[in-house]
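Dear support,

Our group has been running a series of protein-ligand predictions, and this particular one with heme C is the one our PI (initials K.S.) wants archived with full inputs and outputs. We had some confusion internally about which version of the output was final, so please treat the block below as the authoritative record. The input we submitted was:
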Amino acid sequence: MNKYMVMVSLAALLTACGEKAEKAAEAPAAAPAQTDVAAQQAAPASAAPAVDKAALVESAKGAVQALGGTLKGELEAAMKAGGPVEAMGICHTKAPEIAKAVSAEKGMEVSRVSLKNRNPVMGQANEWQTAVLNDFEAKKAAGEDPATIAYAEVVNNEFRFMKAIPTAAVCLKCHGTELSPAVTAKLTELYPQDKATGYKEGDLRGAFVVVKNLAQ
Ligand code: HEC
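Confirmed final output from the archive:
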């Protein structure tokens, strides 16, 4: 009789433990699932006002400054050390690397594009970037200062920022109308499809682009 009761209570204990164990196993899976559902339900209502465009613009400007500043420093050092032909080689390898590093550091995709691009892949503007570059040209023609022309918009949960890049005198050695034969030779070697020459000081050379996916 005693033995039987022990067995019953053991069975009850085991059952109880089994149930507890099952619930415990379910719980961690169930909790995040509920949170996900709650987040999804809340998202449509809160997505639009949650975008702080002014803060994104500030971050984008910081990213542009980081990329522009680093490129300028590298270019100046390379021009001093070896002149435009040497500097061309450095631009060729370093410019894409620097853009990648700054993008990773800032959590935003930073690049440079142009209507007349030199880099055949990264320098090529896509459809909306081409539209913005054309708009920048129109603004400059209407008398706006190229140094301050910029664009910022949120489209399909994507933050988009562009900032015009004016051509300075120092750029003309590699982007101008009268290039040295050595520079021309190097350009032909590195960029057989180059379109980025023939610029004058003050022309729009292109623009910085910053993109951030807000859905992530
Ligand atoms: C030593 C030569 C040299 C000088 C000087 C130079 N660039 Fe460039 N530039 C290049 C090269 C090479 C590339 C392509 C880099 C790459 O492959 O990403 C380039 C690319 C660019 C791009 C990216 C879009 C494109 O056409 O592919 C912009 C914008 C640009 N340069 C602006 C400037 C500006 C503004 C200056 C002056 C402040 C300047 N560059 C001076 C050699 C030069």
